[in-house]
Amino acid sequence: MDGVPRVPDQRRPAPGNAPEELRPHFSVLGPVRAWHGAEQLPMGSPQQRALLAALLLRAGRTATSHELIDALWGDEPPSQALAAVRTYASRLRKVLPAGVLVSESGGYAIAVAEGALDLALAEDLWAEAEKARGVSDLCQARSLVNKALSLWDGEPLANVPGPYAETERTRLEEWRLQLLESRLDMDLEVGCHAEAVSELTALTAAHPLRERLRELLMLALYRSGRQAEALAVYADTRRLLDDELGVDPRPGLKELQQRILKADPALAEPSAAAPEPAAAVVRPAQLPATVPDFTGRASFVSELSGILSAAEGRVMAVSALAGIGGVGKTTLAVHVAHVARTHFPDGQLYVDLQGAGSRAAEPETVLGAFLRALGTADSAIPDSLEERAALYRSVLDGRRVLVVLDNARDAAQVRPLLPGMEGCAALVTSRIRMVDLAGAHLVDLDVMSPEEALLLFTRIVGEERVTSERKAALDVVAACGFLPLAIRIAASRLAARRTWTVSTLAAKLADERRRLDELQAGDLAVKATFELGYGQLEPAQARAFRLLGLADGPDLSLAAAAAVLDLPTEDTEDLLEMLVDTSLVESAAPGRYRYHDLVRLYARACAERELPPGEREAALSRLLDFYLASAARVYAIERPGDRTVDHLEATGHVGQDFSDDTKALDWLHSEAACILACVQQSLGENTLRRAVDLLLASKDLAESGASALRYELATSVARDAAAAIGDAHAEGRARVTLAQVLSKVGHFDQASAELDRASELGEKSGDPWTCGNAPNERGITTYCINQHAASEIYFVKAIEEFRADFNRAGEASALCNLSRALDAMGRTSKAIELAQQGISIYDDLGLTFRLANAKSALGIALGHAGRDAEALDQLTDALWMFVENRQRLWEGTTHFRIAQVHLSGRRSAQAAQHAEQALSTGCVGGNWMRANVLTLLGRSLHSIGQVDRAQACWREALTIHEASGAPEADEVRRLIYPIPAS
User: Fold this and answer.
1) Which helix or strand (DSSP H or E) is residue 603 part of?
2) pLDDT at position 411, please?
3) What is the DSSP letter of 357?
4) Which residues partner with 565 through β-bridges?
5) DSSP state, residue 27
6) Is 291 left (phi over 0), alpha (psi -120 to 50) or beta?
7) What does DSSP assign to residue 805?
């Protein structure tokens, strides 16, 4: 196969008898080195290393003295060449363990144990990769090739003299490139085209005449939606080959260009040369477990599974509705999906759309989760609902996937989630009958028949107990209204109490369920069903059930539940596990608990009926305190010395304890949905300030792709609530926080308006946090739109406010921001001085995360001062700090800054590589910053001769800048349409 690396077969010596950790091992894929255990052995002069390399590359075969002389000196050996060879061999024998270097038949050989030479390891890994690729296990094949490539440590046989070493060096370098091409080819086959662009850009710059790399780059760009750049790569290649070699591109490259011009649909799929590429596709298996005692519904199971298994180009959207909760819609859907799953070999997707709650799942959020489950990289998932839906359908094209959409709100929520592809099917459950869902097969699910109800009850309780009291059992299921959920709760309680008889349960139902005749009256039937379990709870259990149902989040951690109940964690866990046993609460995961949506509504009704408003408000206030105190701890761990935590509202809870920063960040991101739900539930007059402060303390959520939109929404709602009640303190903080989010996505005008109002509110309320942060953020927005003189004024104001508040971390932030502004105005020396002041403060405070921003500012200024090496040191330090702190947008922005330094130093290939990484990662500043990255990428590509691709980048940048009215559009126009010299 063209482009597939091959290496000659080599004989291996038998492994030695020494323990593996004591055997000598060698490297040739870099400097020629030897180790004995963990000790590196001295290999002597370059000629001595050349002798060792010549022996190692023969893999145990004997080399004659003549062959070694030829290897070391070629046609011009010294007069004492034979003596020199013997001397080198003698010296090596003294260094190496006994028996490794042996003399045979007038020559020498090295006995290398299996796996003791890096080249042999690489060859073995490649052989295994070929096998894995042959059976379509591309993930394993890629992993093996990457392991092989990781064995290279710079130039093979580095600094080893002699014609033999030079020949082998060329061969090994060529093999490395072939391995890279093979791995990149597999990257494209599994859909990692966006990630491959950066690496391919750097490789084509380093090896401009290597057409296979150019071909892979064209394909990666095309599959990333960058058709113009892909065609530009071909134009650049054709020009280069003509200029350098006087030849045209090879036929394969020409054919690819034509297919891109025609937008050949087959190009969107993996190469036909790869055997069964579908085998590398991720196959999700997300169906919840079916209940082991599933009972009845035989006609529905037969009907629905038959429809699903015969799906041919139709989306079978099944709505199972009876107007009553607990009728078994989810249970039936999951069971049918398991029955039919063999007809969907490419996977099954499942989601609870939470349609019965006040905050149903957003379709774009669900699509993001589905795309990840189908193997799509985060960087390839677009932002808008329409783009995600289109990509979702594209990913499903050609696959047979079953999608279960549980608990849908309405048809509008469902439509973007339908596969729409031949061979796929969707199974939908909802409380409403979806008559407006075109093409859906509608099923109305009623309660169980008496026979089915009795059978379900018997399977849970046990046949022996029911057979002896059949009439009592019929009384029980009748009292439950033949509703599956009610029957399951009743039977589970009976099964857990061996001293009860069935008659005992029937008598309890008869005594306590005087309202059972109302079971057919809409929602009252649901309350009656849950009353069976609730009425049997001990007072402490009932209190927990009522209070925990008040929280709006999707679930509760054990620690959060303990805060709501104002109880020790151990007592809270006991209560929750008892509630789990009654099926009133579900165990979502170890240490996490959730309510079924209908049970939550019932729990709240109980709380409103039985608890005074003050007790309900106090429970939610304790939950808010828990989240605020815990988020403040995370903030303090990430930003030691930052006075923001000193300005937060006081809480009655100490918060969660964290052993290190990783666990702290993990907690924050895992609790994102619960934190933001708590904010939106706490916007009353008595809790509003704490809710806003919770947003301040959890600001890292604004950096998370999964939580950023919800964070922005919660901040907007908090701002409006504060404005409505006239709380200038809370409103000012909310507006600053919202402006920070808006700035990150490039909405600078909106951010500026929020900050101007925040400054007024800060002065009115006298809040030092707002008074310092509002001008600091305002300086950032003016800096980003190139109003550098104005930004200087804002930053100076911020420094004054921070110093008045003794906020050294804030002062350092403003100093570094002022450094950027002065640097942009050409006052580079002062900019360097200010950035160094900021770094000094952060060092004193131990603020590693903020230190990354300071190092970035210093790196930018040093770059403009022409001190590239120092600049790159600072920016690289900043990059890894942002990576460690999961600040993805700042990570991308730093790649952009590194690219700027490389370009100014005429290292265009490195600049292009970092610019590509900035594009794939994303940057602070949204589309405006994306356009700036594209402009810089175009300059880098132009410098390495990829003129057409550079033009494509500039055109895309111009489109973005013109749409926003950004002044940078003029600069880009001059690049595209240069004014000829007069």
Assistant:
1) helix 597-610
2) 82
3) S
4) none
5) E
6) beta
7) T
Residue pointed to by tokens 């009610």: 486
Q: How would residue 517 be classed by pLDDT, with cut points 50, 70 and 90? A: very low
How would residue 819 be classed by pLDDT, with cut points 50, 70 and 90? very high
Cα→Cα distances 513→447, 535, 604, 913, Å: 19, 10, 20, 72
Is 50 exceeded by the pLDDT of residue 286?
yes
**Considering Cα of 430, then 435, then 436, then 440, what sign does the dihedral take?**
positive
What is the distance between the alpha carbons of residues 455 and 973, in angstroms, rounded to a whole number? 77
For residues 853 and 864, give the distance between their C-alpha atoms in angstroms, rounded to a whole number. Answer: 17
DSSP calls for 926-953: HHHHHHHHHHHHHHHHHHTT-HHHHHHH
Angle formed by the axes of helices 768-784 and 748-765, nearest 10°: 160
Which residue in 679, 791, 783 sits closest to 738, CA to CA?
Answer: 679
Residue 814: partners with Cβ closer than 8 Å, 6 or more residues away: 772, 776, 779, 795, 798, 799, 802
**Cβ partners under 8 Å of residue 88, min gap 6:** 44, 45, 47, 48, 51
Whose CA is closest to 278, among 372, 380, 138? 138
C-alpha closest to that of 405 among 464, 341, 459, 337: 337
Using CB atoms within 10 A of its CB, is residue 263 exposed (0-12), middle (13-18) or buried (19+)? exposed
d(CA 338, CA 645): 50
Contact 280, 138 (CB under 8 A): yes
Q: What is the DSSP string of 881-944?
A: HHHHTT-HHHHHHHHHHHHHHHHHTT-HHHHHHHHHHHHHH--TTHHHHHHHHHHHHHHHHHHT
Residue 599 amino acid letter? V
Distance CA 771, CA 762 (A): 5
The closest of 208, 200, 248 to 947, measured between CA atoms, is 208
Question: Alpha helix (H) ranges present in 726-827?
Answer: 728-744, 748-765, 768-784, 788-804, 808-824
- Which amino acid is present at 130? E
CB proximity list for 408: less than 8 A, separation 6 or greater:
319, 353, 355, 414, 428, 429, 430, 434
Is it the case that residue 570 has pLDDT exceeding 90?
A: yes
Beta carbons within 8 Å of 274's beta carbon, 6+ residues apart: 133, 136, 138, 185, 186, 189
Q: Among 334, 337, 320, which residue's Cα sits nearest to residue 425?
A: 337
For 443, the 3-state DSSP assignment is strand
Is the model's pLDDT at 945 over the cut of 50? yes
Tokens of 600: 């939550």
User: How does DSSP classify residue 430?
Assistant: E
Q: How many CB atoms lie within 10 A of CB 752?
A: 21
| Cβ burial, residue 139 (10 Å; 0-12/13-18/19+) | middle
Q: Which residue has the tokens 């030092």?
A: 768
- The token pair at 824 is 């942009």
Range among 316-325, 380-389, 529-538 rated most confident:
380-389
Strands 107-110 and 318-320: unpaired
**Number of other CB atoms surrounding residue 42 within 10 Å:** 9
Instruction: Name residue 35's beta-bridge partners.
Output: 25, 40
Strands 441-443 and 318-320: what pairing?
A: parallel
Give the tokens for residue 947. Answer: 């003129």
pTM: 0.58
Q: Which stretch of DSSP H or E encloses residue 408?
A: strand 402-408
Number of neighbours of residue 620 by Cβ within 10 angstroms = 19
Phi and psi dihedrals of 26, rounded to 5? -135, 155
Residue 785 above 70 pLDDT?
yes
* Distance in angstroms between the alpha carbons of the first and the last residue of the chain: 54
Question: What SS3 state is found at 288?
Answer: coil
**DSSP 8-state secondary structure symbol assigned to residue 277:** G
